[in-house]
Input
Amino acid sequence: RDGNTMSEFTKGYQWSQAAAKGLILALITIACNTVTYLLPDKAFVNILMFVVRTVASIWLLVTFMKQYAATTGHSPMGFAVCTVLLSSLVCAFYDAAAMAWIFPGLLDQVNEAKSQSMSMVPAEGMSMFEKMMDNLPKIMFFSTFIKDFLFGLIVAAIANSSTRKKDIFSDGSEEKDELA
Output
């Protein structure tokens, strides 16, 4: 019975830590995306925000995984998946909300840019484009979620292998020498 209680405690701890750390990861992305949304015509700023967001997210996720492994003694992969899942959901919701309500001018800019690029498209293509534009916040939600979640899983898998305490150069010869 105590083992079951400990397991529930560990799961609860994992989810509460993942929620807190996922929110921190999401806030980094939200801050960088907000700067990008406010300055859409500044290519240098947009590139800089992309680099800052990417590097900070990777560094934070790896740091959080190492902290979790050191604190609990468990593999941090499950914790990382929970963290990435929650962070991706928050980021996806923010991007969709930014497109639909927070920065409604973004939708107009996207519509204008696409309209200019599709000026030579037949009428059937334009009607499909208009339907897609009506659903752009939903499309933005799902595409952001999938992109962020997959990226986070890849980073987590790579970081998980670095948190293991294996000596890859050891062939077991030290044990043999000690026995002799």
